[in-house]
Amino acid sequence: MRVQLPYFLIRLAVLVILTVVLIAVGVAPLLSVLIGFAAAGLLTWPLGRMQRRAAQRSAERARAEDSIGNPPASRG
Where is this region: Disordered (predicted)? Predict the structure, then answer.
């Protein structure tokens, strides 16, 4: 989860910025949020792929550590 956080925050920031700009321009708030979701999804699609890969690498690394008997890293 911790590996995905920076990617998630960037994607969330894009959504918020787009929504605020659309509201400032005079688009209805609900429509602004819907357009913001669609546009943010399209704009940050490559970032989402990187986020997914980072999560997979992290999970594989954790599985490898568990299989060789190493204690899991501190998650605190």
Answer: 56-76
pTM above 0.85, yes or no: no
* % of the chain exceeding 70 in pLDDT: 88
CA dihedral 30, 38, 23, 17 (to 10 degrees): 130
pLDDT of 2 higher than 90: no
Residue 37 makes CB contacts below 8 A (sequence gap 6+) with: 15
Among 1, 10, 3, smallest CA distance to 47 is for 10
How many residues does this entry show for the chain?
76
Domain definitions of the chain by residue range: 5-66
